[in-house]
Specification:
179 residues, alpha+beta, Outer Surface Protein A, domain 3, 4-stranded antiparallel beta sheet, 3-stranded antiparallel beta sheet
Length: 179
């Protein structure tokens, strides 16, 4: 039995989970999320929790069991609390600035990079060197944070670039001069 899949998802106050024949919809104070699913798993809602069960013990059903339980858990947490990722910008002259519906990054290139803020997400520049991406979908928050990081990934010699707040950059030693 899947250790992740067998755990029930607790549904907090103010969140409703609706199961249709091919999709699950979660509504909460922050918004609505929907996820389609394969018919190898089934959802049972009751008593403030939702249980995901598989219909048979095939390899595909076992694989989808834990996946859909975790996706449902992420949707419940997203519509009740939300998700956020923080990125730090390190480098001389590197900075970010929110301007209307986009964020402008100066990352050492000849021109500044203008990144449009996607619908349903919030990107805030907390000072020139800190950017926070937040929203209700964990997948979209992580994807946008990864796209922003890829504008200038951190390099291993001086650590310049855009990195996640809790990311550790393995530093390398530069050239050793021969004397």
């Amino acid at each position: 039995m899947s250790r992740i899949g067998k755990l029930p998802v607790t549904i907090p106050q103010g969140v409703t989970v609706t199961v249709a024949h091919d999709s699950v919809t979660v509504e909460g104070p922050k918004g609505t999320l929907s996820q389609s699913y394969v018919p190898l798993v089934e959802f049972t809602v009751g008593d403030g929790q939702c249980v995901v069960a598989r219909k048979n013990d095939s390899k595909k059903a076992r694989a989808f069991h834990g996946l859909y339980r975790k996706l449902l858990d992420n949707m419940v947490v997203g519509v009740s609390q939300g998700f956020s990722k923080t990125l730090l910008i390190n480098g001389v002259g590197y900075r970010a600035e929110a301007q209307g519906k986009s964020v402008v990054f100066n990352l050492g290139y000849s021109m500044p990079i203008e990144y449009p803020i996607p619908e349903g997400l919030t990107i805030t520049a907390e000072g020139p060197n800190k950017v926070t991406v937040s929203g209700i979908s964990r997948e979209r928050v992580g994807q946008v944070a990864a796209e922003i990081r890829s504008l200038r990934p951190p390099e291993p010699y001086k650590g310049k670039g855009v990195k996640y707040e809790n990311e550790v950059i393995m530093r390398k030693v530069g050239k050793a001069g021969i004397k």
